Amino acid sequence: MKLTPIPSNASSVNAIFPESLARLALGCTIYDTSSSPEARVYCVDTDDRRLFIKTSTKGSLSTEAVMTRFFHHRKLAAEVLLYETLPTPDHLSNGGISQRDWLITGEVFGKDCTDESYLSDPKHLCEKMAAILHMLQEQPIHDFLIPRRTDSYIANAWSTCSRILSNATGQDNPTSNPSLTKDIDVRYYTDRFGTASVIDIARVFQEYSHLLASDTLIHGDYCLPNIILDSWKFSGFVDLDCAGIADPHIDVFWALWTLQYNLGTHDYDDRFLDAYGREHINEDALRAVAAAEVFG
């Protein structure tokens, strides 16, 4: 996690936070820890604890708040201290105000798995990732009332995939409308399953998406920055906006992706798969997930 210090004087704090939260942050040590353009995340060190304050567009953090509370109940995430939609300084409207979501959580103690102390021992890291994933997937879900995610996951990918298939003009010609594919990144599929055209990947999704189940608790973005360890002991998950009940291959896909991305090699894929258990993996379902991520 990258900590970028930001000023904690009144003018800076009042320009960022709603009035009620500015009083909390004023005079504290504040860092910007944001990693995506969709949301801003601030780390605020108060007198007695470290808080993480996340903000995004109105309504966009509601699922994350619900899921974080659920995971905290299972001792898998930090406590949610506040979730509200609040009037917030709007830098795009010349001093105006807009309604934004604000989510405050406590700290999950430790360091995320991109820390060098973990990346420097990739074999152990792969085994730890597999063990934590099993622990998550074995969580009981009988009392879990959040709607299942698989149907919307498939529908989101199919909305693009179906247009590509309907525009296909031949086996070797991806589409008759190149604008349909300009923002598609086929590497989510080809990095693992080899060379394939957009139309090839669309046909894979069409053929195998029915294999995706809705019977397992998943993180949904099972990547190294979202898993916190305290000296190799699991401490908790963060960024739970994609969590829910869905197909376990979604988290397997992201585990393989994040290991390759952060280690810079596929050399440890087999280590993870062996530790996770190849008998738990349906290769065609994994292909369907990879294809879904191309179009999703």
Automatic annotation (TrEMBL):
Q: Which GO terms describe its biological process?
A: response to antibiotic
Gene Ontology molecular functions: ATP binding; kinase activity; metal ion binding; phosphotransferase activity, alcohol group as acceptor
InterPro entries in UniProt? Aminoglycoside_PTrfase, Kan/Strep_kinase, Kinase-like_dom_sf
* Stretches that traverse the bilayer: none
What does the UniProt keyword field contain? Answer: Antibiotic resistance, ATP-binding, Kinase, Magnesium, Metal-binding, Nucleotide-binding, Transferase
The positions flagged as active site in the entry are: D221
Aminoglycoside phosphotransferase domain boundaries: 38-285
Matches recorded under SUPFAM superfamilies? Protein kinase-like (PK-like) (SSF56112)
Q: Please tell me where Mg(2+) binds in this chain.
A: N226, D239
User: What is stated as this protein's family in its record?
Assistant: Belongs to the aminoglycoside phosphotransferase family.
> Which protein are we looking at?
Aminoglycoside phosphotransferase
